[in-house]
Amino acid sequence: MKNIKAVENVTILTMNENRDIIENGVVVIGDDKILEVGNNEIREKYKEAEVIDGDEGILIPGMVNCHTHASMIPFRSLADDYKDRLKRYLFPLEQKLVNKELVYIGAKYAICEMLLGGVTTFCDMYYFEDEVAKASKELNIRGVLCESVINFPAPDSKEPFGGLEYSKEFIEKWIDDSLIIPGIAPHAPYTNDDESLKKAYELSKKYNVPLTMHVAEMDYEYDKYVKEYNLTPVQYLDKLGILDENFIAAHSVLVNDEDINILKERGVKVSHNIGANAKGAKGVAPILKMREEGINIGLGSDGPMSGNTIDIITQMNLVGKIHKLFSNDRSVLPSVELVEMATMGGAKVLGLDKKIGSIEKGKKADLVLIETQSVNMQPIYDYYASIVYSANPANVDTVLVDGKIVVRNKKLVSGDLNFIRNELIGLKKKIYDVAKNL
């Protein structure tokens, strides 16, 4: 065993089944895995380990962003307050501007932001996903990367539904990678047809990879399926026979009790994207009822043009506050449940809970150290509440993915942030020249 590291002088929120909290804790890492979790006495066995002094910080499992469009970040802050932004601005911008270069540069910058905010795994839906995979490997982040399938010519396909063929090649290329989990992403029911949805499902089943889709997000989507089929979007997808344990439903705002029962019976997982849904005035997904029914819920940011920030600390805070407000009950979703959704919950949604999501012996060393010396972090009576309601992404001090340090002392070490930022800014003029004429 080589590359032994010991994270010490921390309070460990293990997020294991018992939700054990270890004060004055130590986590020993060997290569890419956690070797031991405990108190100071285990350090005696690893005297030669590289020490990471946590400075009385809080150590949590790496956070999971269950739904985003990372390479959309070059468009962030465009048309934020316009109605029908998707069809009026986003789709035209993508058709005119999205290419391999933009996807690669955008993905790199988004990954920098996620890593600096403590996200160690993300689920992506976009075009040219091979470029997102390339950026993920370079910066050392874990990615569930899913190529979009849509019913019109896309940036990486001259034909409608070209994402199906792209997905097959992409899955076969990355299926055995240590960091990249390939998948497939039909954009939504209303931007696909029965045949494309079934073909996407067949690829997911053949290769046993995730299938993710925007589901029950838009009012016009809901109205379409009720009017044309007398079915909700969830019921329509179920009738097609494509809902199963590999299916990740993003948003799921407009669902009823029957829909929730279908999601439960089929083993569907849900990405709750409260920030984007609130900003887009879409509504509040009934995740309290879903959780009562045992549906796995993780947190997502949605794209940087929808929710703007792509960290998960921000999402935890919003989820807690908005659901308390809408429930008229400040006791719902206690902080421990929010941290669970951000870590182990997200791991379960992506089918990775055997590898990540908790700090336990044998799991991948995806870890996040949140410092507690900044002015906003004291005093601490409840570690979970401090993370959810006091912390922000700037409190993330150190991040490890697969045992490698990618952020140290709040600085990205797996890439050159200044260079990547300048690449991103270099895209602005071209984007703005197109956007102002839409």
UniProtKB/TrEMBL annotation:
Broad EC category: hydrolase
Keyword Lyase attached: no
Documented EC number(s): 3.5.4.28, 3.5.4.31
Recorded superkingdom: Bacteria
Keyword list, A-Z: Hydrolase
Database matches in InterPro entries: Amidohydro-rel, Metal-dep_hydrolase_composite, Metal_Hydrolase, MTA/SAH_deaminase
Position of the signal peptide: none
One MF term in the entry's GO annotations: 5'-methylthioadenosine deaminase activity
Domain named Amidohydrolase-related: residues: 58-406
Entry protein name: 5-methylthioadenosine/S-adenosylhomocysteine deaminase MtaD
Organism: Clostridium neonatale
Taxonomic classification: Bacteria, Bacillati, Bacillota, Clostridia, Eubacteriales
